[in-house]
Amino acid sequence: MTVAARLVEVALPLPLLRTFTYAVPERTRHPLLPGSRVVAPVRGKRVIGICVGESDGAQLGGKEAKALLDVPDATPALPPDLLAVCRWISEYYVAPLGLVCRAVLPAALGSATKPDAPGKQERILVLSGELPTLLGRDEAFKRAPQQRQLYELLEQLGGRAAVTHLVEQLGCTPSVVTGLVKRGLVRIEQASRLRDPFADRSVARAALPTPTPAQREAIDRIVASPPGAVTLLHGITGSGKTLVYLEVLKEMVLQQGKSAIVLVPEIALTPQAVDRFRAVFGDQVAVLHSGLSDGERLDAWRALQRGERRIAVGARSAVFAPLENLGAIIVDEEHEASYKQAETPRYHAREVAIMRARETGARCVLGSATPALETWVNARDGRYGQISLPERVGGGALPPVRVVDLRQELRAAPAPQRALRSVLSVPLERALHDRLARGEQSILLLNRRGYASFVQCDEGHVATCPNCSISLTYHRTPERLVCHYCMHQASAESNCADCGLPFKRQRGLGTQQVERLLGDVLPTARIARMDVDTTSGKWAHTAILDRVASHEVDILLGTQMIAKGLDFPNVTLVGVIDADIGINLPDFRSSERTFQLLSQVAGRAGRGPKGGEVFIQTRAPSHHAVRCAMTHDYLGFVNEELPARDSPPYPPTLRLANVVVSGLDEAAVAAFATEVADWLTQAELRFGLGVTLLGPAPCPLERIKNRWRWHVLLKSERQAPLTRLLRGLLTGIEVPARHDLRLVADRDPVSLL
Ligand code: ADP
Ligand code: ZN
């Protein structure tokens, strides 16, 4: 007589929206529970999966289940609340559960080979030559941009890092390392242990100031809110939100003995914020940042799981910290787009934080000076609690913001100066000269587009799509204006409907062009350029900000990324070169993004005793994003922006999903996008789900890294039909196996570019 084997469902890291049934061997190394890691045989390979529950074998269709090979851990890697969160992400974002689990666990737990044992010898790259000046650096790395990235990443990691880790972070070849070694700038050592760069940052224990009455009330209300509640903490910059977080954590962690998670948008850009938590909670804090090697990340994860550290601070993925008995989850700067993961699973860490708080009974705090409209509406309608801190601690004033009307500047400029004046107006140039003369520093923001251009008349009006109210994009061949949501087309030769003046093409300015112009006008200024497209991102970025802090730079010119590093007392001038560029991006959130950026700039500039000034150059001074940022008026902005999201409807009025098709061949991408749109149209007709389809159309960013991109937008008043349609599409349509075609569904997209 045979006893039927126990069957379980296993989530495997495969691009399929299903789980797999396996038989459990009679004897396993460790007990098998939901959330346990298992080693499963997949096409002759050993693959790590997660047991997600018992199985009735229905999926087997009469076939015999294969047996699991191993249960490697004594306790489940995913505790029950995290497994529930994984299930929710998989359902809502329509992502394979196995891929979700893999994204949630530290990378070292995702492979069937053993993670590096501590004490193992590694090749460590050590900084050995200094390049203190920016000019020296530019000169040294003129023909070796990859060496520069590596050098600056190493510098950022404290001057020591594992070779494998560096190569993996940059995606460069080992020859870049050899190049740097040959030049004597770095050397290779053998070592057995690595240092965590944050562990070495010394932080003095600090006593906290006494909360103001407004802060006290916020703290008390959050602590007294029911388990699982979400509270929006809407406080202007400088209103002391961080002290509120710290006091809430003191209560929850030190008094009540619970644990907590603090999410920050990007840790490399905000080391000071992290230091403030470490100054209060010391060794209780685990900082989860992208500089950690896989082994270090695993150590941090285990320390949290064992309860040795009870506060996790980190970016997006720290929301998955395996803490038991969670008391609070804090999402600082909750409006930031970086909380959305750009690859599968495309989750939003704020939404995951809310789900996890519900699951565990933790209090969830969403903090921002400029809350996302979705969040604001949820608070307005009573789904979230709301607390506002409308004043700066100590009553300090926000810096004056001057709007420079580029239309007037251009009218007043002599003809040969027009090109210069459209970049650098007379008032901004004068202000830069003043700062230089006084030995103070300036920051210039250029939110570049470069890839797509719009048309604007001299009065500042922009050609927009009549159906979608987003700006039309200029195309050269054939010359026309195109809506990248619905494919509406218009003549490029048209005149402005508001004032009758001809539309002119606005070319995106490059940071390099602006740098050259600045060099001509201010030949003695030490200018640093920060371009997210040319540096490998955050590490090089932090290195440049450090040089600004040590005053090796007079003018820092960069894209909106640098707005986050605006906390320098000697920076007394911030200029926004062209606010219109951000406003006119073909994305329904472009006004909101611009308002947030301008508010951030306006709120953070001139924090030091020398004060500061903000200049915003624009052809649209009466646009609500500019006007309301100038007067620091969030509610004013919301009151103008929300009605604009009603017709045509966009979030938060309804729900959105973006289905993106990409591939190496333009025609094949367009054809498959059309097939996808047809499939969706048919499904909608058949089931009457109430989902509106827009497109197919090329994405505003038509081509990224050699891949052509088209998209279809799905709008729905309710969530369930979107889930159903997306799931149906991803399981029902076959992606042709040619030209590397891919199909991706992005639920609640934060960017439609
Ligand atoms: P926010 O994050 O809201 O922009 P911060 O938390 O950075 O503001 O606080 C702004 C400044 O005010 C910081 O330098 C902080 O140390 C200080 N601060 C906050 N609360 C108090 C308080 N109750 N008493 C004195 N200083 C405070
Ligand atoms: Zn349109």
UniProtKB/TrEMBL annotation:
It catalyses: Couples ATP hydrolysis with the unwinding of duplex DNA by translocating in the 3'-5' direction; ATP + H2O = ADP + phosphate + H(+). Signal peptide: none annotated. InterPro entries: DEAD/DEAH_box_helicase_dom (IPR011545), Helicase_ATP-bd (IPR014001), Helicase_C-like (IPR001650), P-loop_NTPase (IPR027417), PriA (IPR005259), PriA_3primeBD (IPR041222), PriA_3primeBD_sf (IPR042115), PriA_C (IPR041236). Keywords: ATP-binding, DNA replication, DNA-binding, Helicase, Hydrolase, Isomerase, Metal-binding, Nucleotide-binding, Primosome, Zinc. GO terms for cellular component: primosome complex. Binds 2 zinc ions per subunit. Its EC number is 5.6.2.4. GO terms for molecular function: 3'-5' DNA helicase activity; ATP binding; DNA binding; hydrolase activity; zinc ion binding. Coiled coil: none annotated. It is an enzyme of class 5 (isomerase). GO terms for biological process: DNA recombination; DNA replication initiation; DNA replication, synthesis of primer; double-strand break repair. Belongs to the helicase family. PriA subfamily. Initiates the restart of stalled replication forks, which reloads the replicative helicase on sites other than the origin of replication. Recognizes and binds to abandoned replication forks and remodels them to uncover a helicase loading site. Promotes assembly of the primosome at these replication forks. Component of the replication restart primosome. HAMAP family: PriA. PANTHER family: PRIMOSOMAL PROTEIN N (PTHR30580:SF0). This is Replication restart protein PriA. The lineage of its organism: Bacteria, Pseudomonadati, Gemmatimonadota, Gemmatimonadia, Gemmatimonadales.
